[in-house]
Amino acid sequence: MRAGFVVTEVLNGFRRNITMTIAMILTTAISLGLLGGGLIIARMTDQMRDVYGDKVEVTIYLTPDQSAQDPDCRASPCTDINKQLQANTDVETIDYESQAAAYERYKQQFAGQPELLEIGTPEALSASFHVKLFDPQRYRVIAEQFDGKPGVQSVADQSAFLDRLFSLLNGIRNATIIIALIQALAALLLISNMVQIAAYTRRTETSIMRLVGASRWRTQLPFMIEAVTAGIIGAGLAILGLIGAKFLFVDKALGPVIRSGILPDIDGATLVWVSPILIAIGAGLAAVSAYVTLRLYVRL
Amino acid sequence: MDRLHSAVVIHSSHVTKSYKTSTRPALEDVTIDVEKGEFAFLIGPSGSGKSTFLRLLLREDVPTSGDLEVGGADLVHLRRSKVAAHRRRLGCVFQDFRLLTNKTAAQNVGFALEVIGRSRASIKQVVPEVLEMVGLDGKASRLPNELSGGEQQRVAIARAFASRPLLLLADEPTGNLDPDTSADIMLLLERINRTGTTVVMATHDNAIVDSMRRRVIELQLGKVVRDEARGVYGVGR
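^ Those are the sequences you sent over. The predicted structure of the assembly is below.
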């Protein structure tokens, strides 16, 4: 069997079944585009977790009394806290910030807002230990160890804020993937429909093939190739859509946020990473759907 | 009867075929043998079971009971994966020709060879040969709608014969043709039969059956009611 012969048959199939093929390609493209979007968000979330994980620190705020009485941390309980932190294997680095240093940072932070500078006094701020952990997820261990200890006012970390951010991103990712799955179901049914119509329009060919003793795979192959080709074209459109969305929407709308490092950039590598996944899913989805349809609904 | 005897092409022993939708079996206790090189007519009124029998021979359907063998292959227990190989040993011709309207005469014959995996070189050689044999050597590049009914049936016969089948099944091949054209088609089938191909032809055409004086197997309500070596369509018909 010659490849050229199969290609001609596939092209004829497309030509005869053009409207249904276009519908199937577009549905597949939307489904895979959304799925690709979901995958990109998931990857971005992971990247953000890595980036922010490095920056997350636990802060142990000392009581105002303690902060005022022992500004340089020379006596108990401040030295006790320091020793216990040094002994803790989860701890990577420890920075002690005195009341005066905290005030300096406050002044720098709000340099452009004189009204805030006016109400801020060194006494209103606490001295603190800025603790960086090897694993930021171990925050709770530190909190349990030091909460309520003498001289400790509170233990705080930034992970609560990050948790909220990540849960928002996860929500967007999940919603995108759920819509993608519903679309994928629609694409699956359209592929099945397309194959049934293709088999119907070519029933004379297939009945002759069956009569003269063409093998089953030989009879099915053009339909499979047709569906898989349409699936791959759909995946190609989805990839183009994602590239378009990056340059026309994401880069424009979120450009400043990305440049400031708050959100990671959707770079070429991410698109290169997601493209083969989408092509494989597009081709696989089409092949499975076409095969099942041919087995169950079409007599070949 | 020695079933292993290579001369037997069709061995049908007590074959019954029933359909759930019908109270009477389409075929009932059909026992016949057709030997290699034979030309047999399968006659009987509509609904007598002729087409059902051809369908069983093609393995489009399986007998409800009985034994059915074609060329030594047990069609009752034939595995699904072996059906295509079985059909490659048969040729089929129908009343409605079943040609691909968008393909020329040569392409129609070539298509049948292409889909069973014959090489390009072999197709290039066989197609003109077989078109010449059926008398269409000058019309190879015509589309079916540019050919007469008789010529279209010749293309269908060429297609059926191109792979030199063991058995040629013809279901009312002259049903759509005028008497003169029918006579030409019969001459062609006879020629094919002389090459050693067994021919089984279902027909209503009494003139043809009477003039050929070949074996006649008559079915009525699914039963074989007559099997004559050199028969006619029927007395008083």
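The two ends of chain B are 33 Å apart (CA to CA). Helices of chain B lie at 50-57, 83-87, 105-114, 120-133, 149-161, 179-194, 206-212.

Shout if you want it in another format.
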